[in-house]
Structure formats: structure tokens, C-alpha cells
Amino acid sequence: MKAASLSLSRLEGDLQMADRAKGTIQQYLASARRFEEFLGTDVSEAGQEAIRRWVDHLRTQPIGPERLRCHYSALKFLYGRTLGQPEKVAFISMPRKDSPLPTVLSPAEIQRVLDGFLVAKYRVFFALIYATGLRIREASLLQTSDIDSMQQVIHVRHGKGGRERLVPMPSKLYGLLKAYWKHERPQLPWLFTTKGGRPLCHETARRALLCASAVAGIGKVVTPHMLRHSFATNLLEHGTDLRKIQVVLGHGSIRSTTIYTQVSPSQIAAVRSPLEDLTV
């Protein structure tokens, strides 16, 4: 696969030249590697029909519109910029951004999902995401030094767009992380690692979550971002103001945060109907 490795190396170089964010580069490369595995050959040799099969495969996977957009964008950059074959991906249309309201899990459903994990490392990893609202990439790149037990916060150094922030660390989460670390002893500096000592693989973690959601039997395909949505909605339900939720989630705009007002039952139920002023 030397030719394929060369193609991916060129893709990485072109992304860096285009000044894409580090997280974007990693996502595009990961997507290109998966496509390469799907093809079983150099990506430069794939025809449009092979690319169509890959796109059709992606559309059958339990992934949201944002991740689908990422896969499509990776293909468009790879063939449009790196390989100079834009006609091969001209058929791709991006999913609309105005996606349906986020799916939120109840605390009981979250509990059943967490109980469904067979490997303790993944149970703690996704408990962390639910407890803090971190994105999966942010959680996978946490280092042990990011855990501040004195201030009861976690320092997120690899936020979206390169933004750093602090998120609260409740005592129950700290106890869970402490017990996990004593048992697992992950290779420093990372908090969650593979057997080879690298940061936890996103795709492996996603598969573990899919298996746990199947074991839970809640009738939903659970994604990491669904846990983040559930965290934010829970904060809103308990009276946390939107500005604080925005800061904790790392949203660049409050507009991204206001969507949770549309899925919070207490917020909806609190809306006063004009019928209350009538005698009926």
C-alpha cells in the first residue's frame, strides 16, 4: 500500500497548506483511511462508481448529518485538491445543516447504556462525556494533568477551533476517574489509551457505544454526541442559564446552544398558553 500511503501523505500536506484546523486534518485523514480500507486499493485508482458505493455505505451507517458532511468534505478535498480529479466527486451533495432536533436520552436510559458496557474503560470514558458534555475528540485527548482535583475542573486543551476551556468535574466523576486510573494505569500522558499507548481510537469507542446501546435495549442507536445533547438538556432542566451552558459546551455562538430549549420538556411545559385567560 505504498502508493496509498503516498496519497494520504499528500492529502495531509495539502490540508496543512490550506491552513485547516488540526482537528479537521485528523478527521479528514481518518475518513480517507477508512475509504482506503473499503476500496482495498490506492484512492487515486478509484473510479466514480467505487466512490458512489462508499457514499452509499456511509448513508447506511448510524451517523448524523455533521459527520456525514465531514466524510463528504474529505472526499471533495481529496479528489478536488490533492488528486486533481474533481469530476469524480461532482455528484456529492452535502446534507442540509438544518437537521432534526437532537435526540436526548433520559437519565434512566443513560444508566442502562452505561451498564451495557463490557469493558470498564469505555464505561468510564462515556460516563465522562455524559458528565461533562465533551466531544469525543476532546475526551480522547485528555491528559492526566488536565484533571484539577483542587479546583474540581477539567482543562479541555483540544476544543473545537483550537479553543481551550474549563468544564466542571463533579465529585462522583472524580471518584470514577480515580478508580479507573488506579486499575488501568494508562500510559502517560494520556488519560484514555489504546494498548499501544496512543489516545483512544474514536471509531473503536463508537463501536463499543453501539454495542452497549444494543445491550441496553432502549430502542435507540446511541452516539457520543447524543450523550453531549443529554448533558446540555439536563443542565437546562435544572435551571442552568444558557450562557453558562454555552461556555461549558464550548459553543462559539449562543445560537448553537439555544436549540436545547426546543428539546427540554420543562422549558416547553413552562410556556403559558393564552387559553388560560379564557373561560372554557
UniProtKB/TrEMBL annotation:
The alphabetized list of GO BP terms reads: DNA integration; DNA recombination
Q: Which UniProt keywords apply?
A: DNA integration, DNA recombination, DNA-binding
Protein's name according to its UniProt entry: Tyrosine recombinase XerD
Q: Name one GO molecular function term.
A: DNA binding
Q: Is DNA-binding among the key words of this record? A: yes
| Family of this protein | Belongs to the 'phage' integrase family.
Kinase in keyword set: no
Domain (Tyr recombinase) ranges: 100-273
Question: PANTHER family, alphabetically?
Answer: PHAGE INTEGRASE-RELATED, PROPHAGE INTEGRASE INTD-RELATED
Please state the gene responsible for encoding this protein. xerD_33
Every copy of the Core-binding (CB) domain together lies at 1-83
